[in-house]
Design brief:
31% of the residues lie in helices and 20% in strands. By secondary structure, it is of the alpha/beta class. It binds D-xylitol-5-phosphate and zinc ion. Residues 6, 29, 31, 62, 171, 191 line the site of zinc ion.
Length: 216
């Protein structure tokens, strides 16, 4: 299992130090919110740029913004390795994939809880990962929406049936219990923020999550 730690619940006054605490993550997850696509504002590409020197770990930018295509170049040039945009955003999906690929970055598409999983099927062979939201995007620390686990299973079966390498990432409300549910349904990457950063032994929490095995 791969673990992507969301820094949304970090102490931003010491973000560089917080990043050192999650050094055994596989990926560092940055939640970008514009106040339009989601009812919250977070931070921009300059934050990624300023902490890039603290770690060699891959950075993923989860763009919860209305027009992601306008920001891809900025995130690509600020140390992102993976750029994730929302299927429900206003930008053209194929153009956004093309723009991310132009900068040699990995492409992810995220879907909100109310979006049908079938809507992503036609893009699967063009992208590296699908991020299934298991909370409404906008805030950390929310409760996992159980009904979303079925989506993971349907997507995994489709990926296997087509013989694709597309990975499934699950984002929102991941903890000791829900991590087991989603891995049993076929998740390859777990995004977790509150659970990891709020734990007493961050290193161990991450390494325990990494021990889980993807099923299906
Ligand atoms: C929600 C974000 C998530 C969030 C995860 O809008 O996309 O990445 O930070 O945080 P927890 O693990 O607290 O649900
Ligand atoms: Zn996220």
């Amino acid at each position: 299992m791969k673990v992507s730690t969301s820094i949304l619940s970090c102490d931003f006054s010491i973000l560089g130090k917080e990043i050192l605490k999650i050094r055994n993550s596989d990926i560092i997850h940055f939640d970008i919110m514009d106040g339009y696509f989601v009812p919250n504002i977070s931070f921009g590409h300059d934050v990624l740029k300023s902490v890039r020197k603290y770690t060699d770990l891959p950075f993923e930018a989860h763009l919860m913004v209305k027009e992601p295509i306008n920001f891809i170049e900025k995130f690509a040039n600020s140390g992102s390795d993976i750029i994730i945009f929302h299927l429900e955003s206003n930008s053209d999906v194929l153009e956004s994939i093309k723009e991310i690929t132009k900068f040699n970055k990995k492409v992810g598409i995220s879907i909100k809880p109310n979006t049908n999983i079938e809507k992503i099927f036609k893009y699967l062979n063009l992208i590296d990962l699908v991020t299934i939201m298991t909370v409404e995007p906008g805030f950390g620390g929310q409760k996992f929406i159980n009904s979303q686990s079925e989506k993971i299973k349907i997507l995994k079966e489709k990926i296997n049936f087509e013989g694709l390498k597309t990975l499934i990432e699950v984002d929102g409300g991941i903890n000791e219990q829900t991590s087991k549910i989603v891995t049993q349904n076929g998740a390859d990457i777990l995004v977790a923020g509150t659970y990891i950063l709020g734990s007493e032994n961050i290193y161990k929490t991450i390494s325990d999550l990494k021990k889980l095995k993807t099923c299906i």
